[in-house]
Amino acid sequence: MRSGESTVTTYRQAVEQLSVAQKPGRGAPPYSRWINRRLGRWIAAGAHLAGRTPNQVTMISAALSLAGILIVALVRPQWWTGLVVAALLVLGYAFDAADGQLARLRGGGSAAGEWLDHVVDATKICLLHSAVLISFFRFSDLPHAMLLVPLGYEAVSSVFFFTFILVEKLRKSAGRQAHRGNEAGSGLVQTALAAPTDYGLLCLVFVVFGWTPVFATLYTAMFAAHGLVLLVALARWWRELSAGGHSS
């Protein structure tokens, strides 16, 4: 057994240990903060007792998400397709939250595991919006200009994901990550402002995927809000890193 690895033997012990070891939620988007991390905790506890590894959990997450994405791209929207897609995406996201928690429960993750997790996340973002574009093109009577929405959403989501991961790495290398996590307050304002970037909320939007006009309206609103948050975040991160002495 590796040093620091958990010796819990019951599901309840695993959940309790994960609750104590939970990453700070300050400023995280609402669904991710209050729902998905809890779902991930339950899954991680069960996976630990079943002897699963974090990488195996990551691949289950990828498979569930891919199944939902394929339905979006290949199946004509109906009332039930949205429910199935949303369920698969939500489950995939919950398993995505579980792999890191399982790694902590087992005594720590690996660089390869973190890399795999980020690769799956980046791929999932690109494929999901590409699938929406394909569905709009194949199955809907929406104006052709609507095809620009998933194309733009893919760009905004990918840029946000990359820059967020990068700024976290730069903070860590500058020794400022701990200070950020210990800021006073619960971060409820930041959580509310981060809602448009919440992948979990986007998953729930797919519940109405079978009603194309309704879905297109909500999807476009999420895209516009996400784009606005990206612009604000880029300006904030640039000021922060410039003040910290980073330069290209």
Automatic annotation (TrEMBL):
Listed PROSITE patterns: CDP_ALCOHOL_P_TRANSF
Keywords: Membrane, Transferase, Transmembrane, Transmembrane helix
GO molecular function, one term: phosphotransferase activity, for other substituted phosphate groups
One cellular component (GO) term of this entry: membrane
GO annotation, biological process: phospholipid biosynthetic process
Segments passing through the bilayer: 57-74, 80-98, 145-167, 188-211, 217-238
Family: Belongs to the CDP-alcohol phosphatidyltransferase class-I family.
Name listed for the protein in its UniProt record: CDP-alcohol phosphatidyltransferase family protein
Organism the protein comes from: Nakamurella flava
